[in-house]
Design goal:
The strands form 10 sheets. A 3-stranded antiparallel sheet has the order 1-9-10. A 3-stranded antiparallel sheet has the order 3-2-4. The chain has a two-stranded antiparallel sheet with strand order 5-8. With 654 residues, the chain is α+β, with helices and mostly antiparallel strands. The relative contact order is 0.12. It contains 23 helices and 22 strands. Among the domains are: 132 residues, no CATH class; 185 residues, Cytochrome Bc1 Complex, Chain D, domain 2, CATH 1.10.760. It is globular. It comes from Methylorubrum suomiense. This is Cytochrome c domain-containing protein. InterPro entries: Cyt_c-like_dom, Cyt_c-like_dom_sf, Cytochrome_c_Peroxidase/MauG. Keywords: Heme, Iron, Metal-binding.
């Protein structure tokens, strides 16, 4: 369908929306591309019939199991089994593009994403100005002056958002817009971070990370960036406010709130320091963004930068999908654990989140009669669960277990608890990267030999070129504070468990709880990923499928080089300067110590990059002259790495 026809169709949708709004007062929309508009339409063959708490069961094995009572019991949802079929995959794709789990309320009413520097009108104007064309970096004009640190964005100035719009699409990938009886809200879906537009064709690459998404800047330009303060290096005591502006704490005492203006200014600096293409998903009160990963996830377990998402359905992938929404898109749900995680009284914690809320109904006023928890309860659209999103709540809430950060499962009304997350896992595990650009076959073969001789295959083995292990931070040598991000959660830890996979949501009175076995080496690896049991934490060995789409490299996005390898160095010389990293040059910096030293020095020279703790250090596995490799061999290695566009072994997927 050509873009003029699409605009006509979109106009028809809009006209229908006006009628719907008039009749019912509610309307929502999120784009989902047709198959013809997807660059990587090829999928892996679906050979797995069931997932049994992370164990893949083929259709043939499933048939044999069904012949015995024990086998039938193992395949039952009551024991945590997930049946995988085309319907589940299709539900996963739909959820990937359209499911917000209710985060539009936090993002709009608390954080004020639509009430800061970028207005809905200016966003719509920017999309319309494309005239049906595609962009990987939507430029949106500021609707008012706003200051982030020493940078003031002026009204009318264009902001590089990194938001993607596909060719002919009427809206931004990964954003769902809601109109509800006079109130406009926006929510985010998985596609915002894990789908990208191919700049050459304008088509969508499903599963590719949005490597220029300026999430930190977008949050800094919101009205209430302070609502994300627990993901930043911020000390409440460093921003003393009016002594009369206090919160009544749980013990009956009074605690002063931080000064709203200075605290907000500091919060904007912290989140605004994140490099494009990264996100801080660790609520450890330290600014520590990590690269947005791809969703080319088959055989890439464990998941997350540290490998902490490792247990439960799909070997931890469902846990990762869940925690994006159950822990990172609604900070109000952390109130009950605030004392354990942040050393803060829950009322003080929530008061700090809500004192600058965009909507009056959720704004805490210390001169009023309600405590922060009472303000939240009075305006909460989901009173059956903590926080503002829709959650199925384990009895162990708010304790951490290794399946869920806090005992919550983001869920959809009318389907089983956690079902959408499992469905997205089934869908993501079928995603293949686009076919790699054809290269010299002899060079690629030679590059594989260099890969083995340099020792890369010691860790990067298996179907996805990962040995599925976590490496201690002392060994890998990357930034240490990031590796300890989950350490405080050990103080309140329950055994890993989840709901039976057929548990309806809303939950019945006594839902079936399924324990997740975890012992031996598997337990030790998970403890390392969480920095528990006396460890200092670690970093997972990432899979290498689709590297052409995932630059910059390392967990902190620090290994980044542009086409000009003499000047475009590190985060300051590439993504922070609006220059996309070149995959080949960035991979060369990963394995060449001289080029890496220049990258590390460039990162160290930027205050913004230092604030984000992005260094580009670690992973000192070299394939350079000092290691005995010629420049030609290094070039061949890079060619080989960029050629890996699918699993290297014929294995059962997803």
């Amino acid at each position: 369908m050509g873009w003029p026809l699409r605009i006509i169709v979109a106009s028809g949708i809009a006209a229908g929306a006006v009628l719907a709004v008039g009749a019912f007062g509610r309307f929502s929309f999120a784009p989902m591309p047709d198959a013809a508009d997807v660059l990587n339409r090829d999928r892996y063959a679906m050979r797995t019939a069931y997932d049994l708490l992370g164990r893949r069961v083929s259709a043939e094995e499933a048939e044999r199991m069904k012949a015995t009572p024990e086998g039938r019991a193992a395949l039952s949802p009551k024991n945590g089994a997930v049946a995988i079929d085309e319907a589940l995959v299709q539900r996963g794709r739909e959820a990937f593009y359209r499911e917000t789990f209710g985060n539009e309320v936090f993002l709009s009413d608390v954080m004020g994403m639509l009430d800061g520097g970028l207005s809905p009108f200016e966003v719509a104007r920017a999309v319309l100005a494309l005239g049906g064309g595609a962009t990987t970096n939507l430029k949106v004009r500021m609707s008012r002056d706003m200051t982030v640190g020493d940078r003031t964005w002026r009204k009318g100035e264009e902001v590089p958002t990194g938001l993607d719009v596909a060719k002919g699409a009427p809206a931004i990938i990964g954003i769902r817009t809601f109109y509800d009886r006079g109130t406009l809200r926006m929510g985010i879906t998985c596609a915002l971070c894990h789908a990208a537009v191919d700049p050459a064709s304008g088509k969508v690459v499903e599963g590719a990370p949005n490597t220029d998404l300026n999430a930190g800047l977008l949050m800094a330009l919101s009205k209430n960036a302070s609502a994300y303060f627990m993901h930043a290096s911020l000390d409440l005591a460093a921003h003393p406010g009016d002594p009369a502006r206090t919160v009544s704490q749980e013990d009956g005492g009074k605690a002063p709130l931080p000064d709203p203006q200075s605290f907000e200014a500091a919060a904007k600096i912290q989140v605004g320091s994140w490099p494009p293409g990264s996100f801080d998903s660790s609520a450890d009160r330290i600014t520590n963004p990590t690269s947005i990963p791809s969703s080319f996830s088959a055989y890439g377990e464990p998941y997350s930068w540290s490998g902490r998402e490792a247990v439960g359905p799909f070997k931890g992938l469902s846990s990762l999908n869940n925690n994006v929404h159950a822990a990172n898109s609604d900070t109000t749900q952390q109130t009950a654990a605030a004392r354990t995680l942040f050393g803060l009284d829950p009322e003080l914690y929530l008061g700090t989140v809500l004192q600058g809320a965009a909507r009056e109904a959720l704004r805490y006023d210390p001169a009023g009669t309600k405590r922060p928890t009472e303000v939240l309860a009075a305006a909460d659209p989901t009173p059956e669960s903590p926080g503002l999103n829709r959650y199925a709540v384990l009895p162990s809430f708010p304790a951490t277990n290794y399946m869920t950060d806090n005992g919550l499962f983001a869920s959809v009304l009318g389907e089983p608890a956690n079902h959408a997350n499992n469905a997205m896992s089934a869908y993501q595990n079928l995603l293949r990267a686009p076919n790699a650009a054809s290269g010299d076959a002899a060079s690629i073969k030679a590059g594989r030999g260099v890969f083995e001789r340099a020792g890369c295959a010691g860790c990067h083995s298996g179907p996805a070129l990962t040995n599925n292990r976590i490496i201690p931070v002392e060994e890998i040598g990357t930034e240490p504070t990031r590796a300890r991000a989950g350490a405080k959660m050990e103080a309140r830890l329950s055994p890993p468990a989840m709901f039976a996979t057929d548990t309806p949501f809303p939950l019945p009175e006594s839902p079936k709880i399924v324990p997740i076995p975890l012992e031996g080496d598997a337990l030790k690896q998970v403890q390392l990923g969480w920095a528990h049991a006396g460890t200092k934490g670690g970093y997972k060995v990432p899979n290498l499928v689709g590297l052409a789409w995932t630059a910059p490299y390392l967990h902190d996005s620090g290994v980044s080089v542009g086409l000009d390898a003499t000047r475009q160095l590190g985060v300051p010389g590439t993504v922070d300067a609006g220059v996309m990293p070149d995959p080949a040059n960035s991979l060369r910096a990963l394995v060449d110590r001289d080029l890496r030293a220049k990258v590390v020095a460039a990162n160290a020279g930027s205050e913004k990059t230092r604030t984000a703790r992005v260094t580009g250090e670690g992973h000192t596995i070299w394939a350079d002259r000092a290691a005995g490799f010629s420049d030609e061999e290094q070039t061949a290695l890079v060619a080989y790495l960029l050629s890996v566009d699918r699993l290297t072994e014929d294995v059962a997927t997803p």
